[in-house]
């Protein structure tokens, strides 16, 4: 049963081809004056068109196409179904925003030839992954995406740490691809049916399904940033130029989520009852660990990268709930959980891109990502500060913005889960709910800290005091994304309805149509159970705030006098006396991070009379590094040292090795049957 | 429809009118318990009026956010307080926000207040904000777990539905008892009462809320104080409507039921105020770093309650 | 026939004391005992700990008394009285005197800090819920499910008492952990119908003797080593065996 190519599929393929052409153009024009406008402008047009086309493809019928590329007897199978279309939309929307931002931001790039060719290639790779319909094309596109992003991570190779970040990234990416390759191998089975269609027709049975789940969690989870496979993410994402960071954090992690959904929900057959548990647990742990680490960072982009891990955790909790509900036959609840996860995929793509753009704008304006050198930017960068405030509020899950809407849906899904029969779920779901709530509250703390230190208070350095608002393209990109955050928060019903074709395809049931609910409310299950209306909440708050302001200014007084700050009578003119990033996090570090991250403070107080400065040194370690990767690296090192001896053999010994290997193989062959 | 609209409107004005009185009552009882005469229970109204008519003194580098936050804070708290049933459940807009949203609205209010504390760039503002977010990072999940417990019992996160389920009676449930204890702890912490924070303190390093709003004056301070009073009212109303739902006028009830609801609501508020005052006078403020244990206990109790409900669902 | 029986069987009072209410109250007491066990884990002062322990004993005696009323088992009143007299009054007072006379440091010295201990406590409660509900699934059936939850609560109290003994340094708090463990046993025993009085009394006396023995030991230890910190005892023994 071959599918006919639909118009949208052709558009998507044309977009991929156009992006690849733009990559070539970028390589050719990079040093010239037209490189930046051609590449980013072209990418903007292409991705915008592709995004619109993908949006129309979500409810459209599935299209398929086999191109005579790749492995001869398989070809390149391409397919655009509702799920692919959702992710294609997210990819291209993020791509369009990043291209628009890049038009301005790229001006400050001192080595454009290291960015321009790879940027469209990266977009092309990310667009191709959701289209792939066989293992070969999928892995090819996946690797292409990884390599292009790796090239972008190391594009600023002179900056300290970036090369090491690239190394860790490429290692983890290779590991992830290996895991996915093995997963596809298991799915294809002995028959070698490498097309997704063949895999779907013959899903794995018994333990093979469990291994596929584990491999998908390793492969896609390492790309998405699940703990403890997240270690590369906070190194690599901030190392890239800011619009690429936005793409990596906002979009590429979503492509990884797509990979997970495609394998586990679509190809691996009907789930076992326990499949949800590891996914929920991993998600909940990623949520809390990610946001706690974000709170300990003092580099704006690293804060954002760790916060990505938190949001990925939330998405995986939603997916795990959907798996558990699906396995137990609760279709409606599965649809709710799955919708929540997809909704958050969209939301996080918008919010995180926005926040990275803001961090990039701050970097452009002040030349610094270190929070303790910033401050007071709300006065110097009015547009950026408004957009960032919206982004920060959205990612902190504050109503009526979009982050809250998806989080609310996840909570509603959790509240349906006592019906689940299995013991493991009964215990892990409430614990995951508590961890998610903790993560949400900590996220608010994290973004109060980020925004408060960077944009509020007084400037902590000369550069911050003299910052200027960024160019019009960057501002436009940030405002557009902020608008999306607000719109998706006020009209969550529209997004939910738009996602339903994909939900129906994957879990078999859809959520009740939200368009039929009066007043644009959302009602996930039944009105008596729960409902939420972002628009009305917003209108209530706005109108009562305005009314209050009006009444007070009218009836009481609107007089204002400017004066020096009060500060309990002891104002200090030195901006260093403000709370810093480290001191703001101190209470939370003390409460949460002492056991989890072995965070320690060491205070060196010089004796009275000494002129030496007092120092405070804060150390924290990531348990993933300490207990997993460093021992692993040590092991590899030891094995490599052993293997090193093989390089100092005589020719006769080498020949003996080859001979021995040959004989061994022949023996195996002889004994096999 | 019209009746529900009327109930909603009455409620909005009622909470606004009663909030300062409640704070005044708490202060009065506390004063009497410590053998002081204390100010009149109407003193908070006078304070608000006085503050409203004063000019607002702003620090030189205060931004627009600093000026906007009091209005946002007040509006968010007011909307949240208007959605918690006080004397009757027939609130016309109760479906627009469930208990999770109400919790999150308070979270929004706190988010912006913490930002405002950092706006002027003083060390006191920073200390207040940083401690506030530490406290809220535990109080908020505890609150969510309490909401979970209630929602699992009532099969709904809608506060009006929960209240009507509670009126109908669900029996004595251990998880609800745990939720009540946890809610009491969260309420104490959220409102900055002793032993977590001291609402009457100034010029002390232990203060949290007061440190955060130190730079505010005039009408801005009036709004912040009123928002704090509304929040106290909100939590007492919440406890009353969930755990003592007797006397609540059902939706579409006649005038008699409404009057009864008002009377019982007044009694519940007064009881809550007296209890709070007694509790506050009989306990000492704890060190800041003892607070996480206190709130952690609330989180654990909430989680335990939820867990019990999850487990007992097979019954 | 005494009054309790009248309440239990068909008088007008019966309506008030319907089966579900009897059950709910017993259940609530069991839950309260678990809650108080958590409160004990939370305390960081010895005197406060003793007070909370006394509170637990009071709730326990209420719970036992309620069971006596509900099951119409007058001998359980004796148990309740024993709990009230010894555990709520005598033992806390004795321990308080010991603390005062020995000049023990008034803070509860913990091995693991309070937060993680509480977390571990939650995990233990979850564990005992799973174990008890599973183990009794065959016996109880759906109707008796809440009774099984009571058993799970009793096990939780036992485990939390043990947890307290494990995570506290001071010998006095270990004694209290032991006593609260015993409270859990009594809760389990009275919930099950038909526990003989002899067993009750012997349990109560054994606990009392344990207290005396421990008390004597405390004095002796104190005399010899000048501390009741059990870690210090380990050091005297020449490291942990």
From TrEMBL, chain C:
GO molecular function: oxidoreductase activity
Main subcellular location of this protein, as a coarse class: membrane
UniProt KW keywords: Cell membrane, Membrane, Oxidoreductase, Transmembrane, Transmembrane helix
Membrane-crossing residue ranges in chain numbering: 20-42, 49-69, 75-96, 108-131, 151-168, 175-192, 198-219
Organism domain of life: Bacteria
EC class (word): oxidoreductase
Topology within the bilayer: Multi-pass membrane protein
InterPro entries with a match to the protein in the record: HyfE-like
Subcellular compartments: Cell membrane
GO cellular component terms attached to this protein's record: plasma membrane
UniProt EC number: 1.-.-.-
Stored PANTHER family: HYDROGENASE-4 COMPONENT E
Descriptive protein name: Hydrogenase-4 component E
């Amino acid at each position: 049963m071959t599918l006919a190519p639909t118009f949208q599929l052709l558009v998507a393929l044309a977009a991929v081809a156009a992006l690849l052409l733009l990559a070539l153009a970028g390589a050719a024009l990079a040093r010239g004056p037209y490189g930046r406008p051609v590449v980013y402008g072209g990418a903007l047009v292409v991705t915008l068109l592709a995004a619109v086309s993908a949006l129309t493809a979500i409810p459209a019928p599935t299209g398929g196409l086999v191109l005579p590329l790749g492995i001869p007897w398989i070809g390149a199978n391409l397919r655009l179904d509702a799920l692919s279309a959702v992710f294609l939309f997210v990819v291209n929307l993020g791509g369009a925003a990043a291209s628009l931002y890049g038009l301005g931001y790229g001006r400050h790039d001192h080595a454009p030839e290291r960015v321009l060719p790879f940027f469209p290639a990266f977009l092309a790779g990310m667009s191709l992954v959701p289209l792939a319909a066989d293992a070969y094309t999928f892995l090819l596109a996946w690797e292409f995406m990884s390599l292009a992003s790796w090239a972008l991570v190391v594009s600023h190779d002179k900056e300290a740490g970036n090369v090491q970040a690239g190394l860790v990234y490429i290692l983890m990416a290779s590991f992830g691809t290996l895991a996915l390759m093995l997963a596809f191998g298991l799915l294809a089975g002995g028959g070698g049916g490498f097309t997704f269609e063949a895999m779907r027709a013959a899903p794995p049975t018994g333990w093979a399904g469990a291994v596929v789940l584990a491999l998908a969690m390793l492969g896609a989870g390492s790309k998405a940033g699940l703990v403890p496979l997240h270690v590369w993410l906070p190194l690599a994402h901030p190392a890239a130029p800011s619009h690429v960071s936005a793409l990596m954090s906002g979009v590429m992690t979503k492509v990884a989520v797509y990979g997970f959904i495609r394998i586990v929900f679509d190809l691996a057959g009907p789930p076992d009852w326990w499949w949800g548990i590891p996914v929920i647990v991993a998600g909940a742990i990623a949520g809390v660990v990610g946001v706690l680490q974000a709170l300990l960072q003092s580099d704006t982009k690293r804060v954002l990268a760790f916060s990505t891990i938190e949001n990925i955790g939330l998405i995986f909790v939603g997916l795990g709930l959907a798996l558990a509900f699906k396995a137990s036959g609760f279709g409606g609840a599965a649809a709710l959980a799955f919708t929540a996860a997809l909704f958050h995929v969209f939301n996080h793509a918008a919010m995180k891109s926005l926040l990275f753009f803001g961090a990039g704008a701050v970097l452009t304006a002040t030349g610094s990502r270190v929070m303790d050198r910033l401050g007071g930017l709300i006065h110097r960068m009015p547009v950026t500060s408004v957009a960032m405030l919206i982004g920060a509020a959205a990612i902190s899950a504050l109503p009526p913005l979009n982050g809250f809407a998806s989080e609310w849906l996840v909570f509603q899904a959790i509240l349906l889960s006592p019906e689940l029969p299995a013991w493991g779920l009964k215990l892990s779901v409430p614990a995951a709910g508590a961890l998610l709530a903790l993560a949400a509250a900590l996220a608010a703390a994290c973004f109060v800290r980020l925004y408060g230190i960077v944009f509020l208070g007084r400037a902590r350095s000369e550069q911050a005091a003299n910052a200027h608002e960024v160019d019009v393209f960057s501002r436009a990109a940030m405002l557009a994304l902020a608008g999306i955050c607000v719109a998706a928060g006020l009209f969550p019903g529209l997004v939910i309805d738009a996602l339903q074709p994909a939900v129906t395809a994957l879990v078999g049931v859809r959520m009740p149509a939200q368009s039929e609910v009066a007043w644009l409310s959302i009602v996930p299950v039944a009105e008596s159970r729960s409902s939420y209306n972002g628009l009305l909440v917003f209108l209530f708050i706005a109108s009562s705030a305005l009314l209050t302001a009006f009444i007070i200014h009218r009836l009481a007084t609107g007089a204002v006098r400017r004066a020096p700050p009060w500060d309990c009578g002891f104002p200090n003119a030195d901006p260093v006396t403000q709370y810093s990033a480290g001191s703001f996090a101190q209470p939370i570090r003390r409460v949460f991070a002492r056991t989890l991250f072995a965070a320690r403070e060491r205070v060196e107080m010089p004796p009275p009379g000494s002129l030496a400065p007092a120092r405070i040194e804060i150390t924290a370690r990531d348990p993933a590094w300490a207990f997993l990767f460093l021992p692993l690296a040590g092991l590899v090192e030891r094995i490599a040292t052993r293997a090193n001896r093989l390089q100092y053999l005589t020719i006769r010994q080498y020949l003996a090795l080859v001979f021995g290997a040959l004989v061994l193989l022949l023996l195996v062959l002889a004994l096999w049957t | 429809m019209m009746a529900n609209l009327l109930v909603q409107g009455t409620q909005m004005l009622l909470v606004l009118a009663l909030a300062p009185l409640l704070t005044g009552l708490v202060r009065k009882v506390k004063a009497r318990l410590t053998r002081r005469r204390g100010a009149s229970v109407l003193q908070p109204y006078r304070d608000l009026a006085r503050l409203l008519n004063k000019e607002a003194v702003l620090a030189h580098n205060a931004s627009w956010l600093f000026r906007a936050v009091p209005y946002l804070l007040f509006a968010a708290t007011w909307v949240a307080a208007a959605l918690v049933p006080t004397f009757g459940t027939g609130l016309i807009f109760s479906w627009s926000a469930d208990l999770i949203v109400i919790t999150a609205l308070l979270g929004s209010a706190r988010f912006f207040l913490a930002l405002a504390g950092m706006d002027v760039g003083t060390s006191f503002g920073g200390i207040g904000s940083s401690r506030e977010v530490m406290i809220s990072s535990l109080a908020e999940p505890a609150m969510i777990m309490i909401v979970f417990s209630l929602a699992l019992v009532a099969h709904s996160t809608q506060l009006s539905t929960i209240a009507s389920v509670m009126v109908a009676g669900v029996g004595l449930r251990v998880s609800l008892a745990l939720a009540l204890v946890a809610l009491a702890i969260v309420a104490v912490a959220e409102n900055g009462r002793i032993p977590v924070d001291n609402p009457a303190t100034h010029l002390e390093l232990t203060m949290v809320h007061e440190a955060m709003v130190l730079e505010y004056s005039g009408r801005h301070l009036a709004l912040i104080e009123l928002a704090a009073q509304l929040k106290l009212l909100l939590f007492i109303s919440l406890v009353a409507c969930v755990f003592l739902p007797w006397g609540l006028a059902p939706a579409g009830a006649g005038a008699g039921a409404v009057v009864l609801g008002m009377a019982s609501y007044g009694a519940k508020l007064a009881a809550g105020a007296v209890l709070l005052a007694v509790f506050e006078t009989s306990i000492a403020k704890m060190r800041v770093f003892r607070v996480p244990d206190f709130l952690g206990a609330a989180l654990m109790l909430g989680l335990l309650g939820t867990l019990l409900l999850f487990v007992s669902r097979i019954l | 026939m005494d009054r309790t029986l009248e309440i239990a069987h068909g008088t007008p009072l019966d309506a008030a004391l319907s089966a579900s209410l009897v059950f709910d109250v017993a259940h609530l007491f069991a839950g309260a005992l678990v809650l108080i066990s958590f409160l004990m884990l939370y305390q960081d002062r010895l005197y406060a700990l003793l007070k909370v322990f006394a509170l637990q004993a009071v709730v326990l005696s209420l719970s036992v008394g309620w069971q006596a009323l509900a099951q119409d088992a007058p001998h359980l009143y004796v148990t309740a009285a024993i709990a009230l007299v010894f555990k709520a009054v005598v033992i806390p007072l004795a321990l308080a005197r010991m603390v005062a006379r020995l000049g023990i440091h008034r803070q509860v010295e913990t091995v693991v800090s309070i937060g993680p201990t509480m977390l571990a406590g939650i995990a233990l409660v979850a564990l005992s819920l799973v174990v008890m509900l599973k183990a009794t699934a065959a016996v109880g059936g759906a109707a008796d499910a809440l009774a099984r939850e009571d058993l799970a609560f009793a096990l939780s109290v036992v485990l939390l008492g043990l947890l307290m003994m494990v995570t506290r340094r001071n010998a006095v708090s270990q004694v209290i952990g032991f006593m609260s463990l015993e409270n859990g046993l009594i809760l389990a025993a009275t919930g099950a119908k038909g526990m003989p009085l002899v067993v009750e009394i012997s349990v109560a006396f054994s606990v009392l003797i344990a207290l005396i023995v421990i008390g004597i030991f405390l004095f002796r230890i104190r005399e010899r080593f000048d501390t009741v910190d059990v870690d210090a005892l380990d050091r005297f023994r020449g490291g942990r065996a």
